[in-house]
């Protein structure tokens, strides 16, 4: 126990390590805020950069960047409707409407506080229940991922806006975009038309930037002459009363985030979307209707995606299995530094576990400090006249898209999707479901096929699997309940009681 | 005014010609990694590059361009100028792209700067599996065809090829469930969602050591030092030896028509970088066999690998086009 404590405090007591964690968190917030610059990319670049450093220094920096980066994506999502990272997509749904109401300051304040709460829940789960959670995560079979993905895609229903049919169309369009490229199971080419450039699929961050950022900028051209909305900056840090009100939702979303983060096939983006969906279904009286600037719509995804950070570290530190893309890169970094990430890591290098827990805790504290400073300056950005702001958004979108993989073709995709998204919006199609389809379509595709292949292509055996295993049966039940709750039968039943 | 522009242009021209004569490399290089961040190829690339930079005296900026099982990076480097400033960090995959009809481009269009190392494959099963050797597994699979689930990574991937190689020695039938990579496959194995999986030792080593998976055999003609007491596959299946050594490999390529002087500089730098004890230790600990070969020697290795693999895949009915079409002779 004293050993654990001394390892935990390693990163706190050494001023150099303390400085590195702080610098990492700070840099992470801004890397996360710039669309296209991802935490995965930043950590990969750091590997070459920190090659000659002691491994502890490198790990402190990476933990900071990871924590800060996941949070940072919310900044541009709220202010400009451009999610800085895929995990901030759900944040834009209610965050941007808040900025339009002049409440960007409090929106950032709330997301900072709940991000930190989510972060602590994730760290706590990592510290006390890591082995149990990673064993639980291993139990998820392909059919369970399928059920999770279906639950996620049901969110189309609440993102459809004026017409469900239009929402379903958008969702299906997203699934189609996600299908382009090599079939992950058979390496068959799908919708590539023989082009090598399409073999890798359509980069979905480019689609995200186009559909959210550029299309919104184009829509804003209609109201170019209108003065920018004055942002209220008197109250930024949410009051204790407000935090207390959202605490139950935040904790619930965080628990969801930890589990989804710990699952090796899913990360913060899916965690945030599912948490948002969960909030929409369970919160009876939101501050405002969802999609129009409900605080709850910020609290749920922002708690979940930061909780997913601790969650993703769980299988990585206990089993050497990455929980998401960033932890996969950190595993590579550990190898290069001569450590052996795997199930033996905690036995051979026990300090590493508590050292990481300590670093993440520290990064989370810095997150609170850096997150709550500079908000006033940031909100000024949206007060710029549109004639200045809109070109800036376009430039930022182009630079961010190019940064994904230094490929100019991605910029054309992004602009194309931006234009397309503009017309979609003009005709009352929401773009949210498109992104949902791009993220969840491929997951549904491979999970369903894996599940069916596993039972020798027998559909009855597949159906039997859905109810015969306790975990799967629980998920099937949850899904059935979700579906039934939306039907007339449910309301009839409620009325009768 | 015009004169000044003209003077400027002349000066610029003079500078560029002077630069052209300057020693290679005079600026930073770009290294294109054909697999995503955190994967085996990425780890190897990022581990060797700092040592090479030291020998080269210039930075190599690494970018991951994953997609199309490496076809996208390969096409990208092939389209770049042949000046020696764009390097391809790759694995074995392009050698089977032709027969799988993914891309016409394979390593014959490139010059091997260095084939750093090759990996060794092992066959692992869940820790509670009833089998203790590959032979027992194969016999069980023959008794219950299709009932045993094999973790795979898709066509042309290591599990698929090892499965096909074994099948050509002794016919059996299992159900292959493809995952996104060796790591996700091993995860499914530990969750009990598949029963066994042929996989690179580098990916499975730590899981074997911790006893979370059971190793049934090594795809090699002798025992490997990191797995004492584990039988080589040739013990029960002597017919397998004609395919060995077989395994994934990692290396660095440039376009064929890069100037010879640049090739030589690169070959020397990478040879030196790959000799670095820190890198060698990392590779061996991950269960790889160091090769550090280049030029004609590497070409011969690549040709043999391609011949063995493509023909076995072809005989297993897993190809779309005959290796003959690409002038690959039957081994």
UniProtKB/TrEMBL annotation, chain A:
Pfam families: TctA
Residues of the DUF112 domain: 18-436
Xref: InterPro entries: DUF112_TM
Transmembrane portions of the chain: 16-47, 104-133, 145-161, 196-214, 255-276, 321-340, 352-375, 387-405, 471-493
Keywords: Membrane, Transmembrane, Transmembrane helix
PANTHER family, alphabetized: TRICARBOXYLIC TRANSPORT PROTEIN
Protein name (database record): Tripartite tricarboxylate transporter permease
Organism: Azospirillum oleiclasticum
Automatic annotation (TrEMBL), chain B:
Gene3D superfamilies referenced in this protein's UniProt entry, alphabetically: Bordetella uptake gene, domain 1, Periplasmic binding protein-like II
The keyword Secreted is annotated on this UniProt entry: no
Database matches in SUPFAM superfamilies: Periplasmic binding protein-like II
Recorded superkingdom: Bacteria
CDD domains assigned: PBP2_Bug_TTT
Signal peptide residue numbers: 1-22
Family as reported in the entry's similarity comment: Belongs to the UPF0065 (bug) family.
Protein's recorded name: Tripartite tricarboxylate transporter substrate binding protein
Protein source organism: Azospirillum oleiclasticum
